[in-house]
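Backbone-to-sequence.
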């Protein structure tokens, strides 16, 4: 059996980064965060991609402080 990866909505990703969901959509449009489209045209984000970006962001903040 193949384990399916969790897909997150823009609102869920925004909550993790503490930003507005529109910011997450802009990140996806700019190629900063890969996204998938549902058959209805909604964006979804792989949890592994989100947590990788979150880790990079935290590392960057830690290096600045």
């Amino acid at each position: 059996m193949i384990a399916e990866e969790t897909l997150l909505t823009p609102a869920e990703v925004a909550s993790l980064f503490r930003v507005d969901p529109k910011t997450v959509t802009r990140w996806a449009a700019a190629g900063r965060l890969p996204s998938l489209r549902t058959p209805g045209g909604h964006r979804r984000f792989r949890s592994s991609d989100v947590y990788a970006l979150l880790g990079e962001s935290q590392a960057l903040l830690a290096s600045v402080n």
